[in-house]
Design brief:
Number of helices: 11
Order of helices and strands: HHHHHHHHHHH
Shape: globular
Strand content: under 5%
Number of domains: 1
Number of strands: 0
Largest sheet: none
Helix content: over 70%
Structural class: mainly alpha
Distance between the termini: 67 Å
């Protein structure tokens, strides 16, 4: 008898298959889109995981350093399955950075330190999105040979949207996403205990919100708000100097 366990790996595999089939059957995936997505994915995932590692080390836990995660080598941070899923399905994950909370330097409580480490990944993605949007606008506003740079501009655009998307996605407060660890810090002790005891059921909920399309109702408005806000700020900056 086939026994399907509701763990992170199996749930994500199902999600990737469903999303990939939808994308390919709807004709929204193109070869150029996939090619341009690859560098964007490598940048987004690598910097996301590096931010977790760097923050943990700064808070006193050298575990990421010993596991050779304190670098910007994509091979240190990429999970092959997560990489494929992010390229073809629009969501995925990197190799999780392992931490040992007992090693934290005591500057913050353990719960707060763990929340800071969790938040570092999405913050890095939002920061990268803003930086690359500035670069995108700089090329768009200053070049006179748009055709030559159009592919580069499209590649930069993919980096922007993927980083915003990954940042927003990871802030959803459902395990195994970073948002769940941030939420844990704000929950009372009884809430934390209940959250941990029912963690496996949250994985099922995670699966359902993606299959039913509820995820788009959560992510899309926030994504649009962040993207529009960044665009307004960057446009204002360029209007002052160009």
């Amino acid at each position: 008898m086939f026994d399907f366990q509701f763990d992170k790996k199996n749930i994500i595999i199902v999600l990737c298959i469903v999303a990939a089939l939808w994308l390919f059957t709807s004709g929204t995936t193109t070869i150029l889109g996939i090619v341009l997505t690859i560098p964007a994915v490598l940048i987004a995932l690598t910097f996301h995981e590096y931010a977790h590692a760097w923050t943990a080390v700064k808070l006193g836990d050298d575990t990421p350093k010993y596991q050779e995660r304190l670098n910007l080598n994509p091979l240190s941070h990429i999970d092959p399955l997560g990489l494929v899923c992010l390229i073809v399905a629009g969501f995925g994950w990197g190799k999780p950075v392992q931490i040992n909370s007992r090693n934290f330097n005591g500057k913050y409580s353990v719960a707060k330190a763990e929340a800071i480490v969790a938040a570092a990944g999405p913050i890095m993605n939002f920061s990268l999105a803003f930086i690359f949007m500035i670069i995108y606008y700089a090329i768009y506003r200053t070049t006179s040979i748009i055709a030559i740079n159009s592919v580069w501009q499209l590649a930069l655009y993919y980096i922007v949207i993927l980083n915003i998307g990954l940042g927003v996605f990871n802030l959803i407060p459902i395990p195994p996403l970073d948002g769940s660890k941030i939420l844990m810090y704000f929950l009372p002790s009884n809430g934390k205990r209940w959250f941990l005891e029912n963690e496996r059921y949250f994985y099922i909920g995670f699966l359902l919100i993606w299959i039913t399309g509820i995820s788009s109702l959560i992510i899309s408005p926030i994504f649009q708000w962040v993207y529009s806000g960044y665009a307004a700020i960057v446009t204002k900056i360029f209007s002052l100097f160009i």
